[in-house]
Each structure stands twice: as structure tokens, then as C-alpha cells.
Amino acid sequence: MEYEKIWREKWLEDARGLLQWIEKRNKVPISLFIRHSHRKHSDDQEELLNMRLTPRGHQAAVLFGTKIPKNKSVSIYHSEHPRCVETAERIREGCIRSNISCSIEGPIRELLGPMVHSSIGHELVEYGIDGFINRWARGEFPKTQIEPIRSYSTRLWENTVGLQDTRSHEMHIHVSHDLVLMSVRCGILSIEASQSNWIPFLGGFGVYQVSDQFKWYEKGKEYSVVEKH
Predict the structure, then answer these.
(1) Which of 22, 73, 136, 177 is most exposed, with the fewest beta carbons within 10 Å of its own?
(2) What is the pTM of this model?
């Protein structure tokens, strides 16, 4: 089917890898953090704020839902931004098509982004998202402008991974943005953001707990996170 051909496209390589990893972790509760589905490219910050998913983005998110392992029940949380809401709705549609138990639980504030007290638009344009994240991690922006990256990462972790029932086999999917996911990775794993480790549409990372440790999977590798933050 022409529809299924989308799933084999290069930009969905990370999404395919995440779902293959989930297949191997079917006996543990998983927190999955993914970027929203496909949107058009734009360098205009104002335009990006209002941009929705493309038809290809809708189709890919449905396919993502159809390919979730059938032994998982799924709860979806999302940023309140419309393209994250659309992604959540399309993933749920795909789950339903494949008879996978799935519910949308609603927005989590931290999935939208950090607390910003004055505009960061100029800095994002000047440094790019990766440069901005790395400068933020080094403490180059005052607290009066944006909260510290460590505080933000800790709060997001506590309000997502920290709330999951470790006794269930349920999977929580958190739909967010590249800035958010790369910032949390930098804040928790101390991995600098770069063009080479950019999180693509429907890509991201998965987290599960083993004893007193958390395991973080991304791009074919697992990392240990000893504490929650």
C-alpha cells in the first residue's frame, strides 16, 4: 500500500528503532518520549508557533500507533501545542485500528517547555536550538530569563517517569518538541545537543526501571541513570 511506504522513509528510522526496542522490553513499564510528527520546515519563529502537522505527519503518526506491540496498554500525554495534540490523536487512532488499548490522558505542562520569564526568541535565532541548549546548560542565561536546565529536567522527570506505576506493563507515551527532549537529555545525561544527535519527528527515547536504576534507550544505545534526577 502507498500508505505503508511512508513508514519506510528515512526520517522515520528513529521511530522504527524505538518500536523495535519496545518489542524487547515487553515485561516492564516504559515511558516513551517522542517528538511530534512531521511538519513543514520553517526558520520563522512566529510561523513555527502556529504550524500544524502535514498530511504525511498525520499518516505517519497513525502508522506509529498501529505498530506498537499488542501486549502493551498505552496512555498518551502531550504538550498542549496543537501539533502534539494532533500527534497524540493520530497515534491513538492507529492503536484502535490494531486493537491496542489506548487512552489520551491530556497535557503535561513540562512537555511544552521550560518556564521562560522573558523572551528567548533572539537567542534561539542567534545560536540555533542546539547552541541555545548548550549555553543554557552552562548557565549562560540568567534565572530571570529562563529557569535552570537542571531544575526543568528534574521537574519534567518527576511529572512523567516519576508518576508511572512500576508494577504494571503499561506504556506511557509523552509527545513533545525537539527543544524539550534535547534539553532533558542534556540536563540528565549531560549529552550536548548537536546536529548529529538531533531528535527527528516521531523519534525520541525510552526509559524503564531496573531495581534502583533507570535505563535510558536512544538510537541503539542504553544508558544508566542511577537517580531520578
Answers:
(1) 73
(2) 0.94
Tell me the per-residue pLDDT of 97-148, one tens digit each, with 9 for 90 and over: 999 999 999 999 999 999 998 888 889 989 999 999 999 999 999 999 999 9
* CA max distance for the chain: 53
CA R_g for the chain: 17
Edge-to-edge strand ranges of the sheet holding 204-210: 102-107, 74-78, 171-176, 30-35, 204-210, 213-218, 221-225
The single-letter DSSP state of residue 192 is P
**Model confidence at 41: pLDDT above 80:** yes
Residue 87, SS3 per DSSP: helix
Which CATH homologous superfamily contains domain 2-225?
Answer: Phosphoglycerate mutase-like (3.40.50.1240)
List the one residue out of 22, 105, 139 whose CA is nearest residue 71: 22
At position 166, the amino acid (one-letter code) is: T
What is the rounded distance in angstroms from the CA atom of residue 188 to the CA atom of residue 59?
Answer: 32
Concatenating the DSSP letter of every residue in the chain gives: -HHHHGGGSGGGHHHHHHHHHHHTTTTS-EEEEEE---------HHHHHH----HHHHHHHHHHHHTS-TT--EEEEE-SSHHHHHHHHHHHHHHHHTT--EEEEEE-GGGT---BSS--HHHHHHHHHHHHHHHHHTT-S-TTTB--HHHHHHHHHHTTGGGS-TTS--EEEEEE-HHHHHHHHHHHH-PPP-GGG---TT-EEEEEEETTEEEEEETTEEEEESS--
Confidence band, pLDDT 50/70/90 cuts, at residue 195:
very high
